[in-house]
Amino acid sequence: MFREMLENVRERCPLIHNITNYVTVNDCANILLACGGSPIMSDDIGEAEEITSICGGLNINIGTLNSRTIPSMLAAGKKANELGHPVLLDPVGAGASSLRTNTALKLLDEVRFTVIRGNISEIKTLAAGSGTTKGVDADSADRVTEENLEQVCGFVKAFAERTGSVIAVTGAIDIVADGKKAYCIFNGHPMMSSITGTGCQLSAMTAAYVTANPENVLEATAASVCAMGVCGEIAYERLEPMDGNSSYRNYIIDAVYNLSGGILEKRAKYKIL
Amino acid sequence: MFREMLENVRERCPLIHNITNYVTVNDCANILLACGGSPIMSDDIGEAEEITSICGGLNINIGTLNSRTIPSMLAAGKKANELGHPVLLDPVGAGASSLRTNTALKLLDEVRFTVIRGNISEIKTLAAGSGTTKGVDADSADRVTEENLEQVCGFVKAFAERTGSVIAVTGAIDIVADGKKAYCIFNGHPMMSSITGTGCQLSAMTAAYVTANPENVLEATAASVCAMGVCGEIAYERLEPMDGNSSYRNYIIDAVYNLSGGILEKRAKYKIL
Amino acid sequence: MFREMLENVRERCPLIHNITNYVTVNDCANILLACGGSPIMSDDIGEAEEITSICGGLNINIGTLNSRTIPSMLAAGKKANELGHPVLLDPVGAGASSLRTNTALKLLDEVRFTVIRGNISEIKTLAAGSGTTKGVDADSADRVTEENLEQVCGFVKAFAERTGSVIAVTGAIDIVADGKKAYCIFNGHPMMSSITGTGCQLSAMTAAYVTANPENVLEATAASVCAMGVCGEIAYERLEPMDGNSSYRNYIIDAVYNLSGGILEKRAKYKIL
Fold first, then answer.
1. What percentage of chain B carries pLDDT values higher than 70?
2. If exposure means fewest CB atoms within 10 Å of the residue's CB, which of A123, B137, B230, C249 is most exposed?
């Protein structure tokens, strides 16, 4: 199943409109190309709807959020909804400031999202309508573990049910769920958190996966999350003694570029709850 | 001839003012340093003219175009014209939105460009005054091939004649032309399109080449385009089995850093039409 | 001493708020992670103070300065002062335009900086209240050499005395001084100037060092500057024949990731004046 999801991205080469932050934007573009998609970055209100219209999917990321681009996010999101394009939300830092929390909530209110991908603290903030994230990383108190996995899955499914979106909560264990079914994914490596933007990159790639697989949003999202984890592992295995997080960043994108459906299937580690 | 162009960049170390997009800006800065130039990025109307004045050349790139920086592009462009500095336009995504098409046309109207570099769809959009690009990549219907090469060269020369600019159309085959003479360049590798921003990087580097070689704009542009292609080949040859587009990006900039005039001359593959 | 400074960063994992330019922002985030800190980038006036409040330190960098973010810099800087958080200023390009010079001076006027880090031309501009930098690189006329070292140290100490900030002037020889004591640091490699943003990266890392070592600002700044130089050396030693400035950039961040307190102490080359 995951194999097919990946191969559809390479075959259909979905064009993804990204309204995203300026920290990790280059990596988002390169990972989209690596997975077989095609990126276009555009955030001005003067062209946001038009750019969305020529694309297949939309990726909205609120990192380095600023007042100029909020209207663009709303306009592009609504246009994508109107056209039936998949839309993904990455609520970077929701809970860390009122601006981010409120903007994420406003987006949730006015745009129907196909997928919402964040860390557990960000997703809890969206679900609660308020929150206290410590910066852009998940709060350690919120951590998903084997012990609380079932409980967190229940929470994620309920939020998915309520929003009508597939929810992807990523961390040491990833959960990808709709209202009924949750994939718990065990791929990945802790060193991925020593690179800026693995989350943003995953969001961009997931937008490509769901755009290429519109009939299987849940599985496409799970495949993308799993692919990122597998690539984190492959890249880790490739590290030489002098390598650090900068080479690791390159190796992850390289691994996405080289990932085949067969390897993805073979290395995928997940269970369904 | 190309050797001399390259060596002049290393010797004269031209300082280039870049008003550019936030996707590929870091790569543009690093390739400018790699080729022997020096970058400064600045896009605020409060300093655009002043920064242009202390530089040798100006590179205007309309990727991630926004309303705040359009006046800066116009002001810097006019100031550069006034000072006799070379100015390059990279009309990223012209044809993909009215904002980009109209801004590119307005820039063409109000600023005299020394060089315009884009893919064939972008250049056709500028020539026609309207267009339908698919995102930021060239439309496959527009592709330059051995079969239509002569015809496309005619079109490019005519557009060069009309604008008074050297036109660089890059793709599988690159064409660099003024009104009378076209260089058709066969260097490069298809994998270059799997990295974001090889076009932006080439534009930045070309601004350095023409600034260091003001008496030979056509040849300097052809040398820069050829250098980029040669470096794409060298970087490709360097790839190891686990490398992908991220390492390839690094290797291309590395190759620019190490490129000598002798290697450029030796590997250059072009004909003049 | 330097060892302890470095180890405190790894242990305390300071969260740093960065208001910075879009050229080198990704490298700043990755070097913060590499040294053991944690980055958050945010520049909108709607959240600047709130983000500063949840962080331990603030890094203000005026590269690609624009009118939208100047009020955010001032607001965040004042909030950090109020909370007793360390604040660092990187006056990129001060002297190159009135906008940058005046903004840097206004920041100096309204915010108390714990550390100011720049090249010699930028620091001279701040001290003089005006200047003529050539772009974002130091003017060669200003270069710090063994011959003028004592004299420059005097100038730097006087400026430190006047501002109450630790001043870090980086170049071939680095000077880190408060009003009484100057560390002259001889680590580093000339190739570091062939990468964009080694200065910005150093500023971000220094913000982490002083945030993790609030009782030893002078030594923490010297340790950070020394660490960057040592990593420039280690990265240089790692270069293979085909590597250029792009690989070198990665290797420096990798070296920061792998740097131990022991290696830092062992390779540190400095004298105190």
1. 98
2. B137
